[in-house]
Amino acid sequence: MLILYVKTRCPFCEKVLRRARELGIALKEHNIAEPRYLEELMQKGGKRQVPFLVDEERAVSMYESDDIVRYLEERKK
Ligand SMILES: N[C@@H](CCC(=O)N[C@@H](CS)C(=O)NCC(=O)O)C(=O)O
Question: Would you kindly state where each structural domain of the chain is located, as residue ranges?
Answer without folding.
Answer: 34-52+66-77
